[in-house]
Amino acid sequence: TSIALTDIASGATASGVLSQAITPLSSSSKILINISVNIGGVNNAYGHGQLKRGSTLIGTGDASSNRSQASFGLMSGLSSNFDYRMAIHNFMFLDSPSTTSATTYSVDLICTSGGMNFNRSNNDGDSSIAHRGMSTITVIEVVA
Length: 144
What we know:
This protein has strands at 6-8, 13-22, 30-41, 46-53, 56-58, 72-75, 87-95, 103-113, 116-118, 136-142. By secondary structure, the protein is mostly beta strands. The radius of gyration is 16 Å and the shape is elongated.
């Protein structure tokens, strides 16, 4: 599954921008989730992505004080030249859902500073140096 253009302001969350359902054949199967996110943004914008199974957060770091639990980090460039560029952020996680019921995996994207543009460069003018990309989530059943 891929998503269309999405802009996220500082402090905002885009919930479920990537999602894909799968119905495992066996309760002992594992599910490999591969996420690829293209991001443009203002100079030094950053944030993170969170992977969910249904409404449950999975594949994240430990909670600690005010620190956000993240599956993967997001960051634009550290230069104003980044206006015309995107960066790819990849994350892979092997889940054990222990079910044969339909299971939906989704990704929330959180911008904690600056402004982020998913699937496009920050400068989206009608020019050959401005470009657009795509972000994807792929789920694969791994039979145990």
